[in-house]
């Protein structure tokens, strides 16, 4: 009965997406996309995101858009690049604008349950309908096939879907679009917006992710992301940045005569005051005070903002979004402080600081546990995740379920989790990435990374290659590992859920803990898909 109830909620739209039925409805379209080059699935080629001869051909994207009447010139856009925080910042900005009454297009990646999530349309913020995508696909299919022929089959999955997003934004006559870059910035398919169409550029953070694809260093990554800066258009910086990296970005902005607004300006202040429970889920109570330089005369003072997105990193994203809203207000857009507050407070995202309800936890067989889904997959995001957990649940016993892509820093990620507080159990598993396994890391290789991380940190672990492990697992007492972290490889999500439930049961009713699914958005997607049925 409970499972049926949860699934009815998905069907009624309490959960944002009706996945299975909409995917079936879009089968021909999805099959077409699956036939294209998909770098999310296969991995990005070396230097593909750099502004060099080896970089993606932005001319190809421009030729494709010209074929469809250059729809990207028919709306204003906020363009967001950055190593971390792009999707959350895009969601905050979009909600602020919708709250003010604007019709907003929002384009982000990747998706969790269905590709429809990548395109949000209008004042509702709902994903694009399967019908609208289908109708558009059949309308442009012949032109797509001709373009593919002329480009020698080189047009990618991301380029086609980006083109479709821009066409839909133009068709729907959105007031403004909020667009997340896919990789880097300079050579990303989204970066065809001209200075006349750009309302503001945003760079959230610069970190060591996609190093090979973006030139091999923090400096080349910064230069790639700075490629979204356009002549005379304001640039909003999130941060914090390493000083010489910020200098690279500011120097590029200076050459483009772009005013720079920084969320980390010394006059700005944003702090987490406390954590609370709102509608059965944790939230953080924050102050956000932004005072931009006198030349722009922009300020906003918000106290006791109730953010559903937890952690200092999400507060940072909220402050960045607030700076963007103030930039737009300075350009003539009507955006009240109350719309900023309300937009921030109503923002939540699948797989980012997402807490499941007690009903959903019960369906997973994790009755009484707090279940957190978070797509952290870098050292920095792992550290932010642990800080969030320590703030919200300082005394909780922690079980982690981890699956990661092959191109991530597995050891660095593990070190941040293990050093961030005592973790009782880590269950390592595998999750498909973009519908394939090419970039999936085998659980056995993840185990090697976690063992290496624990050795380097001097943290004792008990793993399933040790004789003591089987003895411990078969014991009936609840003191698992006597202070050691237990490390186990599991063949599937279902197996992880069984093991996690076994651990919870052995703790007793008064010692329910927090179970965290992390390492990629794809493990979060697997959990949500199991709820959707």
From TrEMBL:
Mur ligase C-terminal domain span: 362-435
InterPro entries assigned: Folylpolyglutamate_synth (IPR001645), Folylpolyglutamate_synth_CS (IPR018109), Mur-like_cat_sf (IPR036565), Mur_ligase_C (IPR004101), Mur_ligase_C_dom_sf (IPR036615), Mur_ligase_cen (IPR013221)
PROSITE patterns referenced in this protein's UniProt entry, alphabetically: FOLYLPOLYGLU_SYNT_1, FOLYLPOLYGLU_SYNT_2
Short name of any one Pfam family annotated for the protein: Mur_ligase_M
Coiled-coil portions: none
Annotated Gene3D superfamilies: Mur ligase, C-terminal domain, Mur-like, catalytic domain
Residues in Mur ligase central domain copies: 80-325
Molecular-function GO terms, alphabetical: ATP binding; dihydrofolate synthase activity; metal ion binding; tetrahydrofolylpolyglutamate synthase activity
Keywords for this protein: ATP-binding, Ligase, Magnesium, Metal-binding, Nucleotide-binding
A GO CC term attached to the entry: cytoplasm
NCBIfam families, per database record: folC
Record family assignment: Belongs to the folylpolyglutamate synthase family.
Protein name, entry field: Dihydrofolate synthetase
Organism, as annotated: Vigna radiata var. radiata (Mung bean)
Encoding gene, per UniProt annotation: LOC106765120
